[in-house]
Every structure is written in structure tokens, then in C-alpha cells.
Design brief:
alpha+beta, 4-stranded antiparallel sheet, 6 strands, 21% strand
């Protein structure tokens, strides 16, 4: 099992996206059971800006020649993220062959499974969730992810069959763990809004 890593912007009530509040997002897709989003979607949970300024090709993970926003080295991701106080330090496994929920990773906790398009740009769950009928609020956990591998594979198959002409519907299953304390500096709600700026 190859473990990859990334540093991603948070998206939750305290950290909206430019032009998209958390409330607007949950109304649009109907997923009001979510407390935050831990996706690999490059718009909603984009790579930290400092990664775009770096070009360590040796640490980048490429899939069929395309950049993925994932890296082979945890040390590299931590070095580039530096002292960023609030971000999601994620560990990821692409297309796992067995259930990952019980897999222990030092310092990380399992969050669930995302469905990322083959270009590693969009999540079929978070970015297209309100459009694609096979995805219901009850399918997703508090992070906007699917909790069990068998369910993720079933939804992946349904989406792929129903939307054969939609590029974002042809996906990889991505298992995601988030670090328990790195990038999760405890700050007050007011400070969170100030950091989100």
C-alpha cells in the first residue's frame, strides 16, 4: 500500500472559499450533516499556496504523466507547509484494495473515502454531489466522505455507469487520513475567522 501526502486548505464554516460560503455550499448540495469538508477537490480543498511555488519533481506523485497534488514524502509536505497554523495534513491511498478504516497510521486518524476524477481536480462527492443522483446525504459522513470502502466502490460504479460522458464522474477511490494535531492549532472561533481573512 503506497501512502501519499498533501497539505490542503480547510473548508468549513470558519474557512469559506472565495465566492462560496459554507452555508451556500451545504444548501447547494443538500449535505447539511457535514461539519467540514476533507476532500481532495482542488477548488474546495485546494493545495496550500506555497506548494504552487515549489517545484520538487522528485517528491511529486504523477499519475499517467499528470501532476496530482499528492507527494511521496511526508517530510517534504511538512517542510513546505512550514509553520502554517491551520491546514489539513492528509495521508492518502489511491484505489485501496482493502478496507482502510482500521489501518492505524501514527499521528493520523482515518476520515473516509473520496472519489476524485482521473485528472485529480474534482471530487465527485463534494463538487458534483448535488447533481449526481446516486449520492445522498446519508452516504456521506461529517467530513463529506464515504466511511466504508465497499460503499465507495458501489457509488463509484453507479456514477461511472450513469454519467459515462461526464469526465468528472470517472474516478479513483481515495482513502484519506488527517493528522490529529499538525495544522490544527487550537485557536478561538474569532481567531479562526481572522486567519480565514
Amino acid at each position: 500500500m503506497t501512502i501519499l501526502y498533501t497539505g490542503r486548505e480547510p473548508f468549513n464554516p470558519a474557512f469559506p472559499k472565495e465566492g462560496l460560503t459554507w452555508g451556500e455550499f451545504t444548501v447547494w448540495n443538500g449535505f447539511d450533516q457535514m461539519s467540514e469538508l476533507l476532500s481532495l477537490d482542488q477548488f474546495l480543498n485546494a493545495e496550500l499556496e506555497m506548494f504552487n511555488r515549489e517545484s520538487a519533481e522528485s517528491a511529486c506523485f504523477f499519475d499517467n504523466g499528470s501532476r496530482t497534488g499528492l507527494y511521496t514524502s511526508l517530510e517534504y509536505v511538512r517542510k513546505i507547509a512550514g509553520n502554517c497554523p491551520v491546514y489539513n495534513l492528509l495521508a492518502v491511498v489511491k484505489d485501496p484494495e482493502k478496507e482502510c478504516a482500521g489501518f492505524e497510521m501514527d499521528g493520523f486518524e482515518f476520515a473516509g473515502y473520496d472519489l476524485i476524477d482521473k485528472g485529480f481536480g474534482y471530487s465527485a462527492l463534494s463538487n458534483l454531489g448535488g447533481i449526481l443522483s446516486p449520492i445522498k446525504p446519508s452516504d456521506l459522513n461529517e467530513y463529506g466522505l464515504i466511511s466504508q470502502l465497499v460503499d465507495a466502490q458501489l457509488i463509484q460504479s453507479k456514477i461511472g455507469i450513469l454519467y459515462t460522458d461526464l469526465e468528472q464522474a470517472q474516478t479513483h477511490v481515495m482513502a484519506i487520513w488527517r493528522h490529529k494535531w499538525i495544522g490544527r492549532e487550537e485557536v478561538s472561533q474569532n481567531e479562526l475567522y481572522e486567519v480565514a481573512g
